[in-house]
Each structure stands twice: as structure tokens, then as C-alpha cells.
């Protein structure tokens, strides 16, 4: 049995948490220890609202990465309502097995933060506070990037969690930079005093668009002004494995987080310069197994196929986003029309790298189409 089948075979369906059926808890991974390891750069799959669901996380976990985030979960909603819990977080005991699983929270007060941590702490390895989200509605409520302009509030939340749980709960904060970098340094020092476990710095300001380059000089400056026992992760513009080392060296950090690069290519940290077909079969498998909404699977496949090799023509990619695609069944039909999509359990499942076309016109590259 190949390694991938071996890895999938023990998976239970993704259970909804917190849920009485999930009486078992996760075997914890010590994420902080990973980030503190000076002998290697920690490779981190950062948070994406909508997309970092369990099927995407488990797909990434087949490749070389150390830590994987959930999307930002709004703490206030999560504690308020069963349906919010069902839609916002699902996992199983195997989810991101042997990798660190971090739940990221959108939160503006310590009461909501602690109540959410209490509900989820047995099912993940650490928590993160989102202090980088630039969306106005969240910022108006002092959630996300606005928190970097409310250092007392942010530090107070960290202090409350670390005072209550100490080592039992590892807590990260993901921030953006201020125009005046020394303000970011001050904020990080305050968080360090409050016992934050590590800080992720996205090298853009609150209003910097992602089309602008990440400011690695800022991350380097901030890192250099902070005590070395405070681990710093650099985030921004990491699009392949070479970038990991370049960014780590340039900023003097031990951890690098990639986000848009991972959406396009969940195998990127394994050194793939394009999305291997096996990642596509895996995400289709997990999406069906765990019940991902078809529109999210459609978006994942569009990003991944658009970055695959040999790449489909734009006409074929467009067909994936066509209004005729109304369900997961339609997506599977689409895939079966143009590609040799293997199912879990079928020989050859999740083994191939190049896109296995069955319709030669689906790519501009010359192919030998052998499996028609
Ligand atoms: C689709 C999408 C969703 C995102 N959702 C979150 C989120 O939930 N929490 C967060 O802290 N940042 C979020 N971000 C920002 C990323 O985590 C990251 O900081 C940013 O994309 C820069 O990294 P990159 O250059 O590797 O993409 C999101 C970004 C994208 C593209």
C-alpha cells in the first residue's frame, strides 16, 4: 500500500466540534518547540478565511510543511451559536496529523477569547489572534489589523490567556506593521512581556494592498530589536521553496508563512514549482469525504489547475467556473471529461505529478494521450 493510502486509511470522517461524539482528544504537537528549533526553518501554511478548511488542511499535510492554520474564526459567533460552531470548525483525530494545527481567532476581548479556547483547546495544538485582517467591518469592531493600534487591548488578551493556561495553551499573534516600525517593536515587546509564545509579522501595513511587495526590511528591523527568545515568523510573498530560505535569511527569522502560494500549490513546500496532480486528487477526495461546499472546491481547483503542468487551456479552466457547474457532482463530471481522475482506493490514486489529460485539446502542450 502506498504511503498516501496508508495516511488516509485511518481517517475518520471530519467530526463537528465541540460534539459529544468527539470524546477522544488530539495527540498534541508542540508547535512552539518546532518554531524554536534553530536547526531548521519552520514552514507554515497560514490562515485563509473560507479556504483553510479541513479538506485543504489535510491536502497540505501530505506535503512538507510543519504547521497549518484554520481560517480566522470569529470568537463571538463561535461561542454564541451551535450552527456557527458547525460551519466554522471541523476536524478529526487525524486532521493535519503530525503537523501543528493552529486555530486562528478573530476576537476583541479576553472573555470571548477564553471561552472559545475552552471549547477548542483539546482539538488543536495552539491558537492565534488575528491582528492582521484589514477588512473594515472587522476593524470597526476592533478585530483584526485595528488591534495593532490598540496595543493595550491586544496585550491584555494575551496576558489573560497565558495567565490562565500557562504552557497548556500556546498562543501566537499575527500582526501587520505600523508606518513607524518602532511602534511595531513596542507592540511586540509588550506582547512578549505578556508571555505570547511567538509573533507572526506580515510585512505590510494595515492599508497596504497585497499587490504591493512585502516589506522584508521592516520585518528584519523589528526582529533585530526584539529579544532572541521571542520567536518571529515572517509572512508575505513566499511563493516557492526557494523563497523560504531567502525570506528566513533576509529577515533573520526561524519560521516562514506562505498563504497565496499555498492556495495555488499546496505542495509548494515540498519543492514542487507547479501543483502536482496528486494534490488535486487529494483535495477532491477530502472535499467529498468531509463535505466541503462545492463552490469552495471549485475555487481550490481553479487555483490549483491554473498552476499545474502541463497547464489546461484558459477555455478549459473557464469551463470549471461556468454557471453550469452547480454541485460537487458537476465538478466530478467536469474532471472526468478532461482528466483521468483516480478515486481513493483505485490503483494510481494520488501518485501522479503531471496532469493526466484524456482530451488532448485541453492543454496547449503536445501530449501523448494514452489512456483514452
Ligand atoms: C483568501 C485569503 C484569505 C485570508 N484570510 C486570512 C485570515 O483568515 N486570517 C489572517 O490572519 N490572514 C488572512 N489572510 C492574509 C494571509 O494570511 C497573509 O497574511 C497574506 O496573504 C500575505 O501572505 P502571502 O503573501 O503569502 O499571501 C488571507 C489572505 C487571503 C489571500
UniProtKB/TrEMBL annotation:
- Which residues fall in a coiled-coil region? none
Q: Which domain of life is it from?
A: Eukaryota
Q: Which UniProt keywords apply?
A: NAD
Q: Which InterPro entries match?
A: Aldolase_TIM (IPR013785), DUS-like_FMN-bd (IPR035587)
Domain (DUS-like FMN-binding): give its ranges: 45-320
Molecular functions per Gene Ontology: tRNA-dihydrouridine20a synthase activity; tRNA-dihydrouridine20b synthase activity
Q: What is the protein named?
A: Related to tRNA-dihydrouridine(20a/20b) synthase [NAD(P)+]
Amino acid at each position: 500500500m502506498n504511503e498516501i493510502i496508508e495516511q488516509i486509511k485511518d481517517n475518520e470522517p471530519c467530526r463537528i466540534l465541540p460534539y459529544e461524539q468527539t470524546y477522544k482528544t488530539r495527540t498534541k504537537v508542540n508547535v512552539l518547540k518546532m518554531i524554536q528549533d534553530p536547526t531548521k526553518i519552520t514552514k507554515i501554511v497560514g490562515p485563509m478565511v473560507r479556504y483553510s478548511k479541513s479538506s485543504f488542511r489535510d491536502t497540505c499535510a501530505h506535503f512538507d510543511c510543519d504547521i497549518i492554520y484554520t481560517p480566522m474564526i470569529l470568537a463571538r459567533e463561535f461561542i454564541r451559536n451551535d450552527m456557527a460552531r458547525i460551519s466554522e470548525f471541523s476536524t478529526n483525530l487525524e486532521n493535519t496529523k503530525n503537523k501543528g494545527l493552529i486555530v486562528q481567532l478573530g476576537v476583541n476581548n479576553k472573555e470571548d477569547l477564553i471561552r472559545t479556547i475552552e471549547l477548542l483547546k483539546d482539538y488543536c495544538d495552539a491558537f492565534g489572534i488575528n491582528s492582521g485582517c484589514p477588512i473594515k467591518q472587522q476593524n470597526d469592531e476592533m478585530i483584526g489589523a485595528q488591534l495593532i493600534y490598540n496595543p493595550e487591548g491586544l496585550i491584555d488578551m494575551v496576558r489573560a490567556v497565558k495567565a490562565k493556561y500557562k504552557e497548556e495553551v500556546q498562543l501566537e499573534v499575527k500582526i501587520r506593521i505600523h508606518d513607524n516600525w518602532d511602534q511595531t517593536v513596542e507592540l511586540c515587546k509588550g506582547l512578549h512581556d505578556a508571555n505570547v509564545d511567538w509573533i507572526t509579522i506580515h510585512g505590510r501595513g494595515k492599508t497596504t494592498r497585497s499587490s504591493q511587495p512585502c516589506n522584508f526590511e521592516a520585518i528584519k528591523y523589528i526582529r533585530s530589536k526584539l529579544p532572541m527568545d521571542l520567536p518571529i515568523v515572517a509572512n508575505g510573498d513566499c511563493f516557492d521553496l526557494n523563497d523560504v530560505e531567502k525570506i528566513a535569511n533576509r529577515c533573520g527569522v526561524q519560521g516562514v508563512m506562505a498563504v497565496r502560494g499555498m492556495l495555488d500549490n499546496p505542495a509548494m513546500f515540498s519543492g514542487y514549482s507547479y501543483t502536482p496532480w496528486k494534490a488535486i486528487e487529494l483535495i477532491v477526495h477530502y472535499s467529498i469525504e468531509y463535505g466541503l461546499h462545492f463552490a469552495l472546491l471549485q475555487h481550490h481547483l481553479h487555483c490549483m489547475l491554473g498552476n499545474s503542468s502541463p497547464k489546461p487551456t484558459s477555455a478549459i479552466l473557464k469551463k470549471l467556473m461556468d454557471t453550469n457547474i452547480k454541485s460537487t457532482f458537476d465538478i466530478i463530471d467536469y474532471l472526468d471529461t478532461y482528466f483521468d481522475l483516480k478515486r481513493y482506493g483505485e490503483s494510481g490514486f494520488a501518485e501522479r505529478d503531471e496532469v493526466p489529460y484524456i482530451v488532448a485539446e485541453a492543454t496547449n502542450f503536445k501530449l501523448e494521450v494514452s489512456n483514452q
